[in-house]
Write a structure and sequence with these properties.
This protein is of the alpha/beta class. It folds into two domains: about 300 residues, Aldolase class I (TIM Barrel), CATH 3.20.20.70; about 110 residues, no CATH class. The protein has 18 helices and ten strands. An eight-stranded parallel β-barrel has the order 1-2-3-4-7-8-9-10, surrounded by six helices. A two-stranded antiparallel ribbon has the order 5-6. Strand 9, helix 9 and strand 10 form a beta-alpha-beta unit. Helix 5 crosses helix 6, helix 8 packs parallel to helix 9 and helix 10 crosses helix 18. The longest helix has 29 residues. The relative contact order is 0.14.
């Protein structure tokens, strides 16, 4: 173990702890915090503690015209109303050094996004220094629970360090910016490494974690890249068995790094774009059960879709507005989809015309939008388009928000059922 690294983590033992089970929930318009928390209450009633983390990115705040304090106010009000006595957090989602400032007063969880720095070559001197500090990373490494050993040559270590060191150093800069305002231990840190060209190997994850330890980041969650497609709001596309193996190896790599580098004992995986990845939920639960590891399942955007489903179910003005939002989203498809091009797969041929949708009943609209794989009317292209179409509702302002309030009961039911029945129960309860 690196003595200097060990000393850092003894000194910065976090006061805030995320716990074994946690779920990141997005609430675009800050109206569904209570309904989301109800899902965690239901889990607690079943004997499982799931910590809620409300996440909202700088991009989402910018599009909607909101500020992080609105998310804080909504979460605090929900916690007070439901008498929630367990931890809860607010995540400054995908922040960078340029955007972190506006979140410091309201958030206590920070997802540090260093995607732009991944694969930027590290300085040769930094690589040499890293290799010198970590001779333990060369040779044969055996991970508990893995049925194979991993051989790391000096060339492999140098190449991996070259790819990831600059990104981890950037994460360190962001972490220290937060620490300067909030003091060590008073917030939770996540490092996001998922936006890269391919899934990281266990060797690469070990190098990343060693570098994170060198930077003195008491990281509690890390988001690696997995193989397969994690498109927004729809199911996983890929080999489920391969995903399960990757996740198990990542868990083993984390356990190794915790012992080797003194990283926080509750460090766990964060699965980004985790909403609606129904086909891998049994695999996630199986790995958790076998290893005792925790998971942070990050969902976002689906609450906004449940608002639309609730409005459509309500009929009348709600259904009319839901149809109007679809028509506007269809008309501005390219503009809306451009920022999300890498995480959506929409087939334009499967998008019904605005004229056809205007004739739909409530049942037709909700059947197309609700993620029910067995429903022949479910349309993933419609769902993905509307997933990125929240900008349309944001432009409607009070008109949209007033209908949310007028139809709160039906919307809240959909939000709670979606989060508990389709996400929390299969991942954390194994149902």
């Amino acid at each position: 173990m690196n003595p200097r690294t060990q000393e850092k983590f003894i000194m910065t033992n976090p006061k805030l702890k995320l716990g074994r089970n946690s779920v990141g929930v997005g609430d675009r318009f800050a109206h569904q915090a209570r309904a989301q928390l109800e899902a965690c209450v239901k889990a607690l009633e079943k004997g499982v503690e799931v910590v809620p983390v409300w996440n909202k990115s700088n991009r989402e705040h910018t599009i909607i015209g909101s500020e992080p304090v609105s998310t804080r106010q909504a979460a605090d009000a929900a916690v007070k109303t439901l008498h929630w006595k367990l931890p809860y957090y607010l995540d400054a989602d995908h922040i960078t050094l340029e955007t972190v400032g506006r979140f410091l007063a309201s958030c206590d969880f920070f997802t540090i996004d260093v995607a732009d720095s991944i694969s930027q070559p590290a300085l040769p001197a930094d690589i040499d220094s890293f290799i010198e500090r970590h001779p333990e990373l060369m040779g044969s490494i055996e991970l508990d629970g893995a049925d194979e050993s991993f051989e790391i040559t000096r060339e492999i270590l140098r190449g991996t360090a070259c790819k990831f060191l600059a990104a981890v150093k950037k994460a360190g800069e962001v972490y220290r910016r937060i620490e300067s305002e909030m003091s060590a231990g008073n917030f939770i840190s996540e490092v996001s490494m998922d936006e890269t060209d391919r899934a990281q190997s266990p060797v690469e994850l070990l190098v990343i974690l060693a570098a994170i330890a060198d930077e003195g980041i008491p990281v509690q969650t890390i988001a690696p890249k997995f193989s397969g497609r994690f498109n927004k709001g729809v199911d996983y596309v890929g080999n489920v068995a391969r995903f399960e193996r990757e996740m198990a190896l990542d868990v083993a790599a984390i356990a190794y790094a915790q012992k080797q580098y003194g990283l926080p004992a509750d460090l766990k995986l964060s699965i980004h774009s985790g909403s609606d990845k129904f086909s891998i939920y049994p695999a996630i639960h199986a790995v958790m059960r076998r290893t005792g590891a925790g998971v942070h399942l990050k969902t976002a955007g689906t609450t906004w879709l449940e608002e639309l489903i609730g409005l459509a179910e309500a009929g009348g003005e709600g259904l009319a507005l839901a149809k109007e939002i679809y028509a506007e989203a269809l008309a501005h498809r390219e503009e809306l989809c451009a920022p999300y091009a890498n995480v959506i797969d929409i087939d334009p041929a499967k998008l019904p015309s605005a004229e056809d949708v205007r004739k739909w009943s409530s049942a037709q609209y909700t059947s197309a939008l609700r993620h029910a794989e067995g429903d022949p009317h479910y349309n993933p292209s419609v769902r993905q388009l509307l997933h990125v179409g929240f900008k349309i509702a944001a432009k409607m302002g009070p008109r949209y928000l007033s209908l949310l309030e007028a139809n709160e009961a039906v919307i809240a039911r959909n939000v709670t059922e979606n989060l508990f029945d389709r996400h929390i129960a299969p991942v954390f309860l194994g149902r």
